[in-house]
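Re: the request from the purification team.
They wanted to know what the chain is likely to look like in 3D before they choose a buffer screen. I agreed to run a prediction and write the result into the notebook, where they can find it.
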Amino acid sequence: MNIKDRQKLKKLIRELSSLRGRHTELVTVYVPAGYDLNKIIGHLQQEQGTASNIKDARTRNNVIDSLERMIRTLRLYKKTPENGLAIFAGNSSKNESRIDIQVWVYEPLVPLKTRIYRCDQTFVVDLLQEMLGAREEYGLITMDRREATIGLLRGTNISVLQHMTSGVPGKTRAGGQSSQRFHRIREGAAKEFYKRISEMVNKEFLSKKDLKGIIIGGPGPTKEDFSEYLNNEIKKKVIAIQDITYTDESGLHHLVEKSQEVLAKESIIEEKKIMQKFFEYLGKSIEKVAYGLDEVKKALDLGAIEILLISEDMDDELIDELEEKCSEFGTELRIISNETREGKQLKDLSGIAAILRYAIS
């Protein structure tokens, strides 16, 4: 999959993932390679009849209209495309008072092997994600005795799944028997908190088939104590335990940064390294970098760019133009997601930057 095709698919996934139906009204259909398209159309016509029984009038009309537009679109095809077809239909309007039924069609570059019909509040994009090769997931746990955050690293995206706080009392200065009693209370409360975290980890991670590993982080020895409370299946997936200061959402980002060796092959680390290199040059050796469309185009025309960095939000036509120029001069082109901190910083710098082979005036 070349850069253009990858960008096209990523944008489709982002657009579809951003939509939410009021009820189960967004329709997803995956047609496997070689499957009879007439059978799919027949199935959708049957679903139209079933949808007429939906009680909520707006949902009923949205589903029926979505199915009708999907059927019309499929009838434009003489047969199923070589690698199958993914088609989505639903209300794209985020304004409650307005309805805008749209259809999205994607012809995959690799054969689809799964047939899916789904009518839900969200579109099914997992198979599209597979085509990007970003299905590998890592579980993230940051915790101490006060709080815990459970997150997921998928591709370049770090998301929070759960955040929990404990009822463990603070340390007391009382002496004698009071001190011992408070110590026992604190230890008991800590153990209960560890059990709660472990139960939530089981809920979030045990069913995830694509979970490649789990990384635990936190201050002091607490994280090692907690790891003993994990389910045996979860324990087997723990690939690193890291010392970090924070245990909230920012702790998840710190945990990923601290785990670079473990995640060396993951795209988020590659992106962070190249962007960190750019910002290091920007701060210390500004003659080694360029940013902004005009400056970057000038450097590219001179063949002075070693690595071109483009935000994934940039216009497709511009990316195509720059990609062609890069091939002339042997320049490496990197599309940077805006899901990392560094990616967001690049976006703030007009979305385009470069590391230079040599300084230019």
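For the purification team: The CA atoms of residues 170 and 176 lie 17 Å apart.
Please add any questions underneath this entry.
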